[in-house]
Amino acid sequence: MPATPCAWASHPRCSRCVTTATSTCSMSTPARSCGTRCARRLTAARRAPSPSSRTSSPGVAGESQTNAPAGGVGAAGGGAASAPRVRFAPSPTGYFHVGSARAALYNWLVARQSGGTFILRIEDTDAERNREEWAEGIVSALHWLGMDADEGPYRQSARSARYAEAIDLLWSAGNLYACDCTRDEIDARNKAAGIATPGYDGHCRDRGLERVGPDGAGRALRFAMPPEGTTTVADVIRGDVVFPHEAMDDFVVVKSSGAPLFVLANVVDDVDMAITHVIRGEDLLPTTPRGILVWQALGAAGWEPEAGGGYPGLPVFAHLPLLVNEQRKKLSKRRDPVAVEDYRDKGYLPEAFVNYLALLGWSPHDGRELFTAGELIEWFRLEDVNHAPAFFDVAKLTHINGEYIRALPVDEFIERCRPWTGGGAHGGGTGTPAAGAAPWPAGSFDDAAFARMAPLVQERVATLGEVPAMVDFLFLDEPPVDPGDWAKVVEGDEGAAQILEAARAAFGALEGGGAGGGSGSAFDAETLHRVTQELAESVGRKLAKTQGPIRVALTGRRVGPPLFESMAVLGRDRVLARLDAALDRLARSAPAGPPAG
RNA sequence: GCCCCCAUCGUCCAGUGGCCGAGGACGCCGCCCUUUCAAGGCGGUAACACGGGUUCGAAUCCCGUUGGGGGUGCCA
User: Fold this and answer.
1) Is the CB of A330 under 7 A from strand B?
2) Over the range A179-190, which residues count as b (16 or more CB within 10 Å of their CB) and which as e?
3) ∠ CA A526-A530-A534 to the nearest 5 degrees?
4) CB of A5 under 7 A from strand B?
5) Residues A287-292: what's their mean pLDDT?
6) Is A191 one of the catalytic residues?
7) CA–CA dist A121, A99 (Å, integer)
8) What pLDDT digit, counting tens, does each position of A157-203 carry?
9) Strand B contact with A258 (CB < 7 A)
10) Model-level pTM?
């Protein structure tokens, strides 16, 4: 097998690495990327068994098939010659999977960094997966992430005529044969043959069945595999992956209903849409050789792509490592938090989410972990993507989200909170939790009050969804008393009543803001801090221990934004009223009196 | 069963034959700061799966083992 040049078309000087497996790429920036990966691929290629077989099957020629360009970089699909055309091709499932989001991101990055086209194609050939709102959900999730498609969304369900053409063509060319075996029959034969869990045994391959049975029912159509030889997937991330044909069975390409299956529809679309780079999950790697065979069979049969311009060479492939859970298993929707919409609703910022997604399987050479989409586009390299599955770590996502929130200008932070605070109108599009998510009555939100608290809240939350609980005490008539906090910090503290009484007196002596009365001191954070400090000294406690009961009385919880600012925003009247109420409640629930003895 | 992929701290990455007595980040632990909680600062914990080989020298290259994962559908 000849040395294989790097298939990564956009790489300006990759052809330098072609010569031998030991040659070192001399390109300067970024130094490691090209030389290393190409070296990897070359060694992988050397490992591949040399093709030797020949076939007379109805399928395509049985020689070693590969998507590696034969004569140099420029031969790989349209990828090298023109701007890349990448596609994100999810099947609608009712929600947007984080793994899909990452695949979409990597595709989007390749398009953006190369002046290419990012195409969205909904793979809904399966009638069960064909709900309109599901497709809309994909579009809106992509929009939220800032990755709008340049083309599409195309719907496979709207392209059946095209698939029918391809099927007829392949049938005429002898690549397909009809099969009327049932799954049970196949299993029975395999079992009899002593094979545990096998594929199709080729039973109908030479029976010459018609596409339609005597009863008028359609038959499934299988692709006739070349019996010998191998097909090689030249993968940008993994190098050459060789699949012996003898280990692949004759796969079904058309259902008995006449509907096309994944490999067929997927390849027809990629050809028609002139896709140059196929970037998707590693779970599709084992089916890629099938797709390559179909791609080649279609070309050999004279298929004319919708896009025109002649039949395209194979696309460049890149199979991304899977995203896994703590059990190292593929993320499952049943037990793992995989819906992007849920993260959106919890208050994760799209830019933070994208940042984290990018880090799952890739990182810039300088070790930076926080970067803008623009920097990502500039630095990202598909060939630098890791090979091993990555654990989707919500804790780290959350940390990064917190970094992004804290970096926001306060004004923007306030705006971004609107979907959760309910105050004013918000721009729509990015927002999200269901309307009325805020825990207070619609009309009681006070923009000015929230604005005063915002800087303090901003540095205390890691997600926007945590914001309401930080400020709800300001917009509710009664503080939302946490039973546990009340029991521990107020009821459980023998000095609480004394502190509350003293606080009531000290704060009451301050002016409420208007003129007249009081000590002449304003009801502001600085003064409140000083007064509370004095109060603490008078009862012989530290400020930290003193503010506890007051905090719970006023805000209902023992943790929250700084107390004195909170009190200032609350205002003198409400502070005094809540202190009274707390004293009242304490008197009723826990009759005072020192414990005996 | 068969085919394929993968293997550095608990996690995500850095590492591409000597600069590695392995670096960063998240998490965790401790200290500092401090009106709670965060944030921030400082310090700490913790990994090259195993065995062979190649080499003067291997986390790095090769082979094998083990382990994990994916695929094996008239799903995608």
Assistant:
1) yes
2) bebeeeebeeeb
3) 170
4) no
5) 98
6) no
7) 16
8) 999 999 999 999 999 999 999 999 999 999 999 988 888 767 899 99
9) no
10) 0.86
